[in-house]
């Protein structure tokens, strides 16, 4: 990769990590979009995105956990359903083109609802039904492992729209969910890690720096209204990426 392309890609990764981590996300869809824009080989994109996602989600989970924005009772059913399915999805190499278009449209609609109705997430928080949480986690996990993301872009709007978490707890739960999902997906795609080029270390440094900055600001400085608006922006980016991929 040419030095200019390397600098541009590292900068895009930094920006994506800062933006996504501010709402508890790892940023995989942003990394995939950036790498696709710069012409990175498909065989490199998936494992690279999962590794960066793992690092940034770790930082986000730590920061939101310190800010007491996490609920174990909300997290574990989704994680229990997602982990084995994320591993299974990581084993497969099938481009789910039609489904990605549908998911992209859903994410854009979710972003619209969050932006236009800022009070919708202020409803009384209730515990998610166990079976529904397990099934939703399984579906999100499989899709996440298949395309190389952590699943936060799907879990966050679900938690908010269903009234299962407030915005900050949603961010904390999503960060932990992305962490375990990325690890499971990467475990299922270990062969792809060998394809990552040496300059990948610069991507790691950029992602860690952006993730540290974004997660700190998101966990300590942003109120619920701003968190919803930020999440809406993230969903637009992720949804747009799904549609044009």
UniProtKB/TrEMBL annotation:
Taxonomically, which superkingdom?
Answer: Bacteria
Subcellular location per the Swiss-Prot or TrEMBL entry: Cell membrane; Membrane
Lipid bilayer topology? Multi-pass membrane protein
Q: Which UniProt keywords apply?
A: Cell membrane, Membrane, Transmembrane, Transmembrane helix
Q: Which Pfam families match?
A: TauE (PF01925)
Does the UniProt entry include the keyword Transmembrane? yes
Note whether Cell membrane occurs among the keywords: yes
Q: Which terms in the GO cellular component ontology are assigned?
A: plasma membrane
Q: Please give the chief subcellular localization of this protein.
A: membrane
Recorded family membership: Belongs to the 4-toluene sulfonate uptake permease (TSUP) (TC 2.A.102) family.
Q: Under what name is this protein listed?
A: Probable membrane transporter protein
Q: Which organism is it from?
A: Calditerricola satsumensis
